[in-house]
Amino acid sequence: MPTNLPDRPNKKAAASGPESDFPAGLSKPALRALAGAGFLRLEQLARVTEKELLQLHGMGPKGIEALRPALAAKGLSFALESGTSGKSS
Question: What is the pLDDT averaged over residues 22-46?
């Protein structure tokens, strides 16, 4: 299980509710996956990597592609994978 995912404070929280700022084109399975993991705002997604989000049941590449421009519009991006500096030792 991804380590940076938030605790699950309320499984009934709806990701598409008034507190959410996720893009309208995000699929219902992706929204349920995010809500189930405790994500309600785009800012929260900047703390996790794409790889971590892809581990959520219901989140796939299309969901990531829908979230990436929404994050960029707020000056945010997904967290970088650790050890991906591109430098070899």
Answer: 96
